[in-house]
Amino acid sequence: MTHIRPATPADVPVILALIRELALFEREPDAVEATEPMLAEALFGERPAAEALMAERDGAVAGFALFFHNFSTWKGRRGLYLEDLYVTPAARGGGVGTALLRHLAGIALDRGCARFEWSVLDWNVDAVAFYRAMGAVGLEEWTVQRVDGAALVRLAGR
Predict the structure, then answer these.
(1) What are the φ/ψ torsions at residue 18 (nearest 5 degrees)?
(2) By C-alpha distance, which of 46, 45, 35, 110 is closest to 78?
(3) Residue 112 backbone phi and psi in degrees, to 5
(4) How many whole angstroms separate alpha carbon 85 and alpha carbon 72?
(5) Is 86 a catalytic residue?
(6) Which of 64, 67, 81, 131 is catalytic?
(7) Element containing residue 95 per DSSP (H, E)
(8) Tens digit of each residue's pLDDT (9 = 90 or more) over 4-57
(9) What is the number of other CB atoms lying within 10 angstroms of the CB of residue 26?
(10) Is 158 exposed, middle or buried (0-12, 13-18, 19+ CB in 10 A)?
(11) Distance CA 34, CA 156 (A)
């Protein structure tokens, strides 16, 4: 049985370790810049930027989900955006991902969100199939745009 609970400040080291595992899985092992103090501030500081859930099986961490609110001008309501969902290799196929998604969907409904969204790498066919089985629809006409690093500095004119 999977138990889902809100993350606590004591979970920050585990969350960072899981983020690093996710980065390795996503073929970006050196991309993680986050530190424990950064995550602690982002999740539990004076103005939290995000929230996290921990999934446990038999008392051990089996995965996590990190999410935040966005806003739809067309709907006039906020939405829930799932930044990361990760299930440890040993727990995959055991319903942990499903439990996390269902829990997040419930949060979205409880908070009056108009939608629940996330991105998935196109090469991660197992994840895409899993999400489709859960009722997710790919937004084929939309592509994610990103500005970061030096390009962000240039765009800001600094």
Answers:
(1) -70, -35
(2) 110
(3) 70, 25
(4) 22
(5) no
(6) 131
(7) none
(8) 999 999 999 999 999 999 999 999 999 999 999 999 999 999 999 999 999 999
(9) 14
(10) exposed
(11) 23
